[in-house]
Amino acid sequence: MRLTPDPLYARTWLPLIRFGVGLLYRGFGGYRIQGVENLPRSGRVLVACNHLSLADPLAMLVASPRPLFYMAAEELHQMAWVGPTIRFLQSFPVRRGEWDQNAIAHARALLRNEQGLVVYPEGRISPDGELLPLYPGVAMLALRERCPVVPARMRGTDGFLPLGSKLIRFHPKSVRFGPALDFGAPRPGESIKTQVQAATERLREAMLGL
Asked: Which residue range forms the structural domain that includes residue 110?
């Protein structure tokens, strides 16, 4: 798996996809992007976003001014049309519900190579649009790699492409990026579990506040 964006993808395909998908998303109900100045243009960063729809990664691609990598559920990579699409969009698989050593190792390698990584800390699509409990992986990665975390909140993508649907609908959509969170480095003498729990709660509050 790559640790830098493919040059052809970044220079040619990404701008074309961003333009075409942007037209589609804005044409079918509108797409509002806010707080993009909070997303660093270079350097390591974790983008932690809620998850409402399979339309979310493309919505993030349109919103981001820089190429991003995506951590996505292994079962999505195995789906007939979804898998090849998200792999092309720089996604790599993670096994949900467990500490996937391979996925975590690849995520850490990307961050050490100064890349941007999108993670959906809920671990699945929310069935009702409400923010689900967050898995601790984002906080753990941020602490281990001294990496800023940019919280993001999608709205309306579940109305645009509802869960289980194959057809898009006319529906307003938006994403808001919040100020980056800095959890610092693990503090000696304090339980790492306690630090991760506190960082995860801080991230959840930031996402709810968007």
From this structure: 7-208
Those residues whose C-beta lies under 8 Å from the C-beta of residue 112, and which sit 6 or more positions away, are 44, 145
- Sheet with 31-34: strands ordered across: 31-34, 173-177, 149-155, 45-49, 116-119, 69-73, 91-94
Residue 123 domain-assigned (yes or no) = yes
Any idea what DSSP says for residue 39? S
pLDDT tens-place string over residues 75-113: 888 877 778 888 888 999 888 777 788 989 999 999 999
Bridge-based pairing state of the strands 116-119 and 45-49: parallel
DSSP 3-state assignment of 182? coil
Q: Into how many domains does the chain fold? A: 1
Question: Shortest CA distance to 96 belongs to which of 50, 137, 53, 128?
Answer: 137
Q: What is the pTM of this model?
A: 0.94
The candidate with the shortest Cα–Cα distance to 52, out of 117, 151, 128, 164, is 128
Q: Is residue 1 part of a domain?
A: no
- Determine, yes or no, domain membership for 2: no
